[in-house]
Amino acid sequence: MATGSGAAAAAADAEEKESGSRMITLTSNEGKAFVVTEASARQSATIRSMVDDGGCVDKGFPLPNVDSKTLARVIQYCDEHGNKEAHTVDERAALAKFDKDFIAELDADKAFLYDVTMAANYLHIQGLFALTTQCIADTIKGKTPEEIRTAFGIEYDLTAQDEEEIKEEDTHA
Amino acid sequence: MRRCGSSSGGRFTGGGGQEGRWPGFEGKGARGERAAPVVKWSHAEAMKKKPRGRGGAAFTGDGGGWMRRLEEEEAGLELDGSCWGSWSEAAATRASGTAIGGAGEHVRFRPEAEAKRARPFDAGEWGGGGGGEVGGDGGEGRMYEWRWTEAVSPEILALILRGRVDADEVARGAARVCRAWREAAAAPDVWGDVDIEAWCRRVNCRPRADAAVRRLVALARGTLRRLSAYRVGDAALAYVAAS
């Protein structure tokens, strides 16, 4: 921190702190308001661009596609990643552990995992989206269709025509 | 219990053993026998209850112990009186089973076999409330989940599959899960960058590799950017080059 770039970083830190002290209101589709720090909200590229584009910070952001339960969980992720520093090895390890626990919890509830994935996609929270999609992909990997159905609670609804096609695929490849 | 009883057995896979053909409906065979009490309900009574019943009660079963959760107690009690008795027996015989709301209506409206086909759409409608309820409550994966079936976003699924799951696994696994997944897996962007080299080595058969390459090219529909394969014949290479 003794170098010139250190000073720049300090300035950036100060700016971040300042912006971090601003609070932003996110409203779920049930009308429940969640107040988060700006640093946390900026984890979402969607909100970040709206904040940067100006003005509407005071009014808050309605999120018609996200329900309260999902939003609460998403904010939990954003708080962890937005408000905490990840400069040292320890801090990074702590964050990685948080991610691991976070996704393990979601993994146990595939319906909720889907909601969180959709919310992460809608809000463009890259880290969270990567986390959930990777978890889903890991669940799919190495499984038969039946195992996948069981894992996600999916219903078998293939038509006779689909089955016909599948049979054909099997004979060809 | 109307909601839990009627379709739930068929709807979820109970865990271990599966029935080959209709794996998702493992409970179905067994259920067929006990479907009778449900079908006997008077439509009038059922209709009367429907609005309240939807999403009202959810059950999770775990081993022998059944837990009942009632969102609307009133509906629960009413249902309790009318049919829980017959269902509790049925339920107890199932080692593991999870019940979900909103499915009861199917049985009244259509015969079993037909319901199998027709269910996905209704399930979104009827199962929505209950499914969400139970799922949200830390329910387990074996229950039917509309979010992952007809409501699943093809774009998201394509994003998940692309680059994260091997092509041959997609073709053999994800693409055969259900209709929505099949459609999603057929999206060209899933097949833009494919590595089937490992599969080719495993199979080690030129004609099959060739056939696979042709199919991949067809699937990608002109969006193929990179294809890694092994032991592919000249004809297939020419085909790739031409497309």
TrEMBL record, chain A:
What's a GO biological-process term for it?
A: ubiquitin-dependent protein catabolic process
Q: What keywords sit in the KW lines?
A: Ubl conjugation pathway
Q: In which pathway does it act?
A: Protein modification; protein ubiquitination
Q: Which SMART domains match?
A: Skp1
The record ties this protein, via InterPro entries, to: SKP1, SKP1-like, SKP1-like_dim_sf, SKP1/BTB/POZ_sf, Skp1_comp_dimer, Skp1_comp_POZ
Superkingdom of the source? Answer: Eukaryota
The entry describes its oligomerization and partners as: Part of a SCF (SKP1-cullin-F-box) protein ligase complex.
Q: What does this protein do?
A: Involved in ubiquitination and subsequent proteasomal degradation of target proteins. Together with CUL1, RBX1 and a F-box protein, it forms a SCF E3 ubiquitin ligase complex. The functional specificity of this complex depends on the type of F-box protein. In the SCF complex, it serves as an adapter that links the F-box protein to CUL1.
Name the family: Belongs to the SKP1 family.
Q: Where is the composition biased (Low complexity)?
A: 1-12
SKP1 component POZ domain mapped to chain residues: 23-81
PANTHER family listed in its UniProt record: SKP1
Asked if Transferase is a keyword of the record, the answer is no
Under which name does UniProt file this protein?
SKP1-like protein
Q: Does the keyword Transmembrane helix apply?
A: no
Q: Where do the segments described as Disordered lie?
A: 1-22
Q: Record's Pfam families?
A: Skp1 (PF01466), Skp1_POZ (PF03931)
Residue span, SKP1 component dimerisation domain: 126-171
TrEMBL record, chain B:
Under PANTHER family, the record lists:
F-BOX DOMAIN CONTAINING PROTEIN, EXPRESSED (PTHR38926), F-BOX DOMAIN-CONTAINING PROTEIN (PTHR38926:SF81)
**Could you tell me which residues belong to the region Disordered?**
1-65
Q: What is this protein called?
A: F-box domain-containing protein
Compositional bias annotation for Gly residues? 7-19, 54-65
Question: What organism is listed for this UniProt entry?
Answer: Oryza meridionalis
In this protein, which residues make up the domain named F-box?
154-196
Q: Record's Pfam families?
A: F-box-like (PF12937)
Q: Which InterPro entries match?
A: F-box-like_dom_sf, F-box_dom
Source species, domain of life: Eukaryota
